[in-house]
């Protein structure tokens, strides 16, 4: 995996850093695993804009990803590593021994021809294999972790992310999450061995505004440039600093805890992220 700096033959390319796509082995997706993806433009079902700075962008088709990995004890071969326009990580196309094909989030180091499997207890904790937290050795680097059994992976799914299994006690396992938070998760939740692919994604530099527009991201107006009626940080004579950073609804942006004190999951958080 590597990144590539473009030759500065135009002003926009002077600072542009793009993905080298060295790990990609196939340029076209599997047609049977595609689904249409409708763009909202940040509007709800009545046409009212509820999310700002969204609109336009290149047309995309959704790749149907197997987050559950519930095809137990059937070996699969990695057919290809592919680019997915809907996420930062690469995806892997699997072909099971019974002929079925599925997409999964690709782990770093996964290669074409590799055999992987998911199961409950008799599966070895090797790269790409999916198994419950109760069967994974302590200290193992994991990703694509379920938060609720059989619901599908919801933690550590983006490029370069991973978690670490720290301990087990009764029906809970202690997992250190990518955010730095340590949390209790039920031991019968599934997880995949390894780190998520495309860790160099954080090094990319778009180089020009147009590349953000291709991704469907519209320009964002600075709050200090607005009027007081539009934002708490707007207004003032001359170029005012804007005062204390806060959202449009008045919620402070730095150091203010927004998490509810009455959340049921609070008891499952062992250690908060260190600042």
List keywords for this structure.
4-stranded antiparallel β-sheet; mainly beta; OB fold (Dihydrolipoamide Acetyltransferase, E2P); 2% helix; 275 residues; 7-stranded antiparallel β-sheet; 1 helix; 17 strands
Number of domains: 1
Separation, N- and C-terminal Cα atoms? 30 Å
Task: Provide mean pLDDT, rounded.
Answer: 94
Shape: globular
By secondary-structure content and strand pairing, the structural class works out as mainly beta
Low-confidence stretches: none
Secondary-structure topology with pairs:
Layout: E1 3-5, E2 17-19, E3 34-36, E4 61-63, E5 76-82, E6 91-96, E7 101-105, E8 115-116, E9 130-132, E10 141-143, E11 145-146, E12 153-155, E13 163-169, E14 172-176, E15 182-186, E16 190-193, H1 209-214, E17 269-271
Antiparallel strand pairs: 1-2, 3-4, 5-6, 5-8, 6-7, 9-16, 10-13, 10-16, 11-12, 13-14, 14-15, 15-17
């Amino acid at each position: 995996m590597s990144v590539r700096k473009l030759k500065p033959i135009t002003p926009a390319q002077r600072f542009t850093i793009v993905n080298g796509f060295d790990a990609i082995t196939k340029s076209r997706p599997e047609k049977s695993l595609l689904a249409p993806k409708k763009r909202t433009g940040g509007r709800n079902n009545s046409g009212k804009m509820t999310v700002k700075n969204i609109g336009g962008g290149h047309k995309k088709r959704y790749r149907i990803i197997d987050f559950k990995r519930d095809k137990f004890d059937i070996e699969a071969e990695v057919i290809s590593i592919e680019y997915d326009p809907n996420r930062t990580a690469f995806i892997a196309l699997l072909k099971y021994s019974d002929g079925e094909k599925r997409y999964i989030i690709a782990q770093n180091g996964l290669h074409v021809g590799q055999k992987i499997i998911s199961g409950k207890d008799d599966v070895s904790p090797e790269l790409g294999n999916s198994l419950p937290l109760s069967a994974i050795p302590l200290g193992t680097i994991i990703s694509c972790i379920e938060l609720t059994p059989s619901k599908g992976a919801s933690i550590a799914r983006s490029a370069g992310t991973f978690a670490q299994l720290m301990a087990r006690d009764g029906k809970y396992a202690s997992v250190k999450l990518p955010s730095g938070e340590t949390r209790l998760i039920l031991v019968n939740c599934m997880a995949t061995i390894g780190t998520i692919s495309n860790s160099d994604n954080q090094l990319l530099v778009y180089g020009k505004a147009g590349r953000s527009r291709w991704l469907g991201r519209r320009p964002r107006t600075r709050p200090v440039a607005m009027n007081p009626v539009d934002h708490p940080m707007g207004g003032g004579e001359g170029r005012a600093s804007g005062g204390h950073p806060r959202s449009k609804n008045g919620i402070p942006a730095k150091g203010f805890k927004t998490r509810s004190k009455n959340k049921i999951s609070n008891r499952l958080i062992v250690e908060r992220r260190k600042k």
